[in-house]
Structure formats: structure tokens, C-alpha cells
Design goal:
Elements lengths: L1 E5 L3 H12 L4 E5 L10 H4 L9 E4 L5 E3 L1 H12 L8 H31 L5 H22 L12 H10 L2 H5 L8 H11 L2 H7 L13 H7 L9
Parallel strand pairs: 1-2
Antiparallel strand pairs: 1-3, 3-4
Helix pairs in contact: 1-3, 1-6, 1-9, 3-6, 4-5, 4-6, 5-8, 6-8
Length: 230
């Protein structure tokens, strides 16, 4: 049994897809970040960084946080959704997994923040992060032009990591953004049609999360507003 602390953001959704693909039993623990539940002492005891997702593997006692770390842990624990056990395939898996963890995710997240939520003035920040988000998705689109999945013809945890963020492309880059990434769109549609992806998406019906980004939510989500560094 896996205890899964989650909400409906891109990073928890990667893990939801992974748990469904691996057919692992899991218990959902919703964490409403717009209500500040991620900053409560009991949650910080599980993840001192105060973010979702987190899993606790009840069989091993392992606590794992950070979405891509969770994907790698579950893949190695179960032996599922990994490429051939060769140095070349392992190198590809780790390279693209970290590309998503350190590039796609952070630049997409910052693009969303400055485009949709940050106060003015913000033109420089919006331009920088939208440019970098689009560049990263362009790298992936070019990569997928020559193969079905991120690591050759094998569906792996890298594809699950990518799907979590690909769901957000129109929100990040605009409603017409898919036209710039035909190969990524093909990948996204194919992955979204998988039964596990449909089950992960259906988790939105399991719990209610605060939808309003009001002043209270901003204080919880953007804590620098209450405690500026400079």
C-alpha cells in the first residue's frame, strides 16, 4: 500500500499516472495548497520542503518526495516501465528524466506564475520564462519527431513525467500552442488515451480543492509576499 499525498497540479499527476500504470494500491491524502495545508507541522514532518507529491511506501517504510524521485523509486522498486538494462538506455532515461525535472517543470511553473499571478511590472520575467518554457518543449518536440516515446520505442517513467506537464501546455503557452508542437501533441493524445491516464485524470472527482486564487491563497502559495527577502 502506498500513501499518496497529492493535489491536481502537474507533479502529483505524474505520480498518479505512475501508480495507476503500475496497478499499485494507494491511499489518497489530499493536500490543499491554497489553504496552506502544505505548511502544517504534520505535513512538514513528511516533506520538509512543504510541497506535494510525497509517498510513503507502507511495505518498506520509505518516504519519498519530489515527483521524479518518486517515479524512479517506484520503477526500481517494481521493475516496471524502465528501458533495457544497458548503460546507453539508462543514460537516456536519466538524462530526459532530469531534463524534465530541472528544465521543463521549473520553467513551466515560473512561466505560469509570472504570466497569470505575479503583480506588475513583469514583462521581462514573463518573456524570459515563456521563452525558456517554449524552448524546452521545442527540444522535446524535435526529439519525439524520430521516435514514439522519450526513450526510444519503450513507454517509461520519463513519459509519465512528461505527461504531467504536457497537460498544461495551453495554459502555459496559450490556446494555440499545440500547433508549434505536433509531435508532443501526438504523444500527449496517445498517452492521455491510456486507461491509467484516464484513471489518474478522474482523481479530480475524489476530493475538492480550493479553486480561488484570493489573497489568502496567495499568502500560502507565494510566501515571499509576506516575508520579502530584500
Amino acid at each position: 500500500m502506498i500513501t499518496f499525498y497529492y493535489n491536481r497540479a502537474p507533479n502529483p499527476m505524474k505520480v498518479a499516472l505512475c501508480l495507476e500504470e503500475m496497478n499499485l494500491p494507494y491511499e489518497l491524502k489530499p493536500v490543499d495548497t491554497r489553504k496552506g495545508e502544505q505548511h502544517q507541522p504534520d505535513f512538514l514532518a513528511i516533506n520538509p520542503n512543504g510541497k506535494v507529491p510525497v509517498i510513503i511506501d507502507q511495505d518498506t517504510g520509505a518516504r519519498v518526495f519530489d515527483s521524479n524521485a518518486i517515479l524512479l523509486y517506484l520503477a526500481e522498486r517494481t521493475g516496471q516501465f524502465l528501458p533495457d538494462s544497458t548503460p546507453v538506455a539508462r543514460g537516456e532515461l536519466l538524462s530526459w528524466l532530469m531534463f524534465i525535472a530541472t528544465g521543463v517543470g521549473p520553467f513551466s511553473g515560473q512561466a505560469v506564475h509570472f504570466k497569470h499571478f505575479a503583480p506588475e511590472p513583469k514583462d521581462y520575467a514573463v518573456n524570459r520564462y515563456l521563452y525558456e518554457a517554449k524552448r524546452h518543449y521545442g527540444v522535446i518536440d524535435a526529439h519525439l519527431s524520430g521516435q514514439r516515446y522519450m526513450v526510444g520505442e519503450t513507454y517509461t517513467i520519463v513519459d509519465m513525467a512528461l505527461w504531467g506537464w504536457a497537460r498544461m501546455v495551453p495554459f502555459i503557452l496559450g490556446e494555440n500552442a499545440w500547433g508549434d508542437f505536433p509531435n508532443l501533441k501526438r504523444f500527449f493524445d496517445e498517452t492521455s488515451a491510456r486507461p491509467a491516464a484516464q484513471a489518474a485524470t478522474a482523481l479530480k472527482e475524489k476530493h475538492s480543492f480550493k479553486a480561488e486564487m484570493d489573497d489568502e491563497a496567495r499568502q500560502h502559495m507565494f510566501r515571499h509576499l509576506a516575508a520579502p527577502v530584500s
